[in-house]
Amino acid sequence: MVKEQAYSNSVEVLDKRGGRFLRRTSTLEEELQVWHGRKPTSRLEKTQLKETQLKETQLKETQLEETQLEETQLEETQLKETQLEETQVEKTYVRVIFGVLQAPQIPHDGALGSVIAPDFWTTTVKDLNGGAGSRYEFDDDNDDEFISHDTWSCFKIKQVQTEPKLEYTWQQLALFVKWRAIDNSNLVLTLDAGQDIQNELDRRLQSIDERDPYSWQVVFVEEVIKLYDKSVWSLRDLVRKVEKTRGSHCNLTEISHLHEISRHLGHSHETLDIAINIIKSISSEHEAFWNERKICGPESDKQGPDKQVQRRLSALSLDLSNITRRSVSLKERLQYEINLAHNMVSHRNTDMMRTISAITLIYLPGTFVSGLFSSAFFQFSSETNNWVVAENFWVYWAIVIPLTITTFLIWAKYHRYEIKQAITFLGAKILGRKVEDRAKNP
Predict the structure, then answer these.
(1) Residue 247 has pLDDT above 60, yes or no
(2) How many C-beta atoms surround the C-beta of residue 289 within 10 A?
(3) Is the model's pLDDT at 299 over the cut of 70?
(4) Angle, nearest 10°, between helix axes 252-293 and 305-373?
(5) Which H helix or E strand runs over 424?
(6) Confidence of residue 305 (pLDDT cuts 50, 70, 90)
(7) Same structural domain for residues 381 and 429?
(8) Which of 295, 319, 344 delimits the end of a domain?
(9) Alpha-carbon span 86 to 274, nearest angstrom
């Protein structure tokens, strides 16, 4: 039985070798196993190794007669070994993996569960609108020694297409970065990143500060914002088309179409709000990361790598806020068109009711007369060829007149404010005419 995976087995990999990045095809399991198996010596172990070497050197000096030549050779040998160790430590290892998310299952075992933080998989496979997080790893023997740091982010974007018909697709893009303190090595994993994002990461690999894992987040967020901007502009085209065809959306189908566009705008506004919060979270985690490392002290240059990333994240948050404001404006503009369509439909219905009322008024006198003469109060005598009125005809008026007056009074009670305003308006108009007549004829 094959276990369902939450990722594509085939991935594209960029490796930094000799200052150059080489692209190749591999599997995600294999790449993470290589990273998991690559364990450089910790600083504590190096310190212990140097102490052991020093003790051995002192023992040899006690047992052997040292000459000036031997001492010089020993110092040179130790210097070469120290330089070699420092060169190995400074050698940076960078690996960028481009993968595709497939099935909703969170891996907990193997290299996938140990190298990649489980919270990252939780964020990507669950039906969320995005998220961000981080994880710290310290030395077991020394809680103050920083070993590695993980940071990740996930964004969800709704892309709307208008041709050949109104359709939409959801995009979810995720980035995971693992940084190791001892050699500034970087493992970068992207899921469902489009070709544009891959090309941009490829283009800017040499300029990314490998000491700061959040430099990758900046490049990733920059490309994600371009997709958000594209999404909002596609919705803008829909709203503008509605505005250009104003007055033609007065039937049920067209009004439903307007509400469908409004639904897409609501989703856009929701994901943009969450994206702004994600960027703020990344910025907060970045500041905490540098405080934890204690690299940027008070004496550090204000233009250090953390300040540059912080400023760029702040600028990106502002850009996304502007896109969000445009999305809100589009929703407001569309709401105006929906209100106009409803008002036009209501006006059309009012015109129809007026027509029906006018026709009713035309036929009402005839209906009243025919109903009255067809009642038992009037009879036509064939003997005298005349109409005979019943003696109790007064009962009809005794009922109709009070009922009519009562109906009018009830109506006037519930519409007294409108009646008062109408009387005031008519009085002002009549008074105004009198004033004008007096002015003309003093």
Answers:
(1) yes
(2) 21
(3) no
(4) 160
(5) helix 416-440
(6) low
(7) yes
(8) 344
(9) 44
| Exposure b/e, 63-95, CB count within 10 A at least 16 = b | eeeeeeeeeeeeeeeeeeeeeeeeeeeeeebbb
Does some domain include residue 133? Answer: yes
Q: Whole-angstrom Cα distance, residue 180 to residue 213? A: 9
Question: Is residue 255 located within the same domain as residue 187?
Answer: yes
264 and 403 assigned to the same domain: no
CB atoms within 10 A of CB 377: 16
Residue 307 lies in a domain: yes
Is 424 domain-assigned?
A: yes
Residue with tokens 């705008």: 265
Amino acid of residue 422: A
Mean pLDDT of the chain: 75
- Which of the listed ranges 112-116, 285-289, 433-437 does the model predict with the highest average pLDDT? 285-289
Confidence of residue 44 (pLDDT cuts 50, 70, 90): very low
374-414 residue pLDDT tens: 777 777 777 777 777 777 778 878 888 888 888 888 888 88
| Dist. CA 40–CA 156, nearest whole Å | 36
Q: 2 is written with which tokens?
A: 């094959």
Domain edge (last residue) among 320, 344, 368: 344
Residue 355, pLDDT above cutoff 70 = yes
pLDDT at 222: 92
* Mean pLDDT to the nearest integer, 137-160: 83
| Domain limits for position 311 | 10-38+93-344
CATH code of the domain containing 269: 1.20.58.340
Q: Does a structural domain hold residue 298?
A: yes
Number of residues in the chain: 442
- Say how far apart CA 305 and CA 209 lie, in whole Å: 7
Q: How many domains does the chain have?
A: 2
What is the sign, positive or negative, of the torsion defined by CA atoms of 307, 309, 312, 318? negative
Contact 134, 151 (CB under 8 A): yes
**Where would I find the H helices in 101-251?**
110-115, 118-125, 195-203, 214-244
Are residues 288 and 419 located together in one domain of the fold?
A: no
288 and 398 together in one domain: no
Which of residues 431 and 410 earns the better pLDDT score?
Answer: 410
Question: With bands split at pLDDT 50, 70 and 90, how would you rate the model's confidence at 319?
Answer: very high
CB within 8 Å of 281: residues ≥ 6 apart = 132, 133
Q: Do 255 and 124 share a structural domain?
A: yes
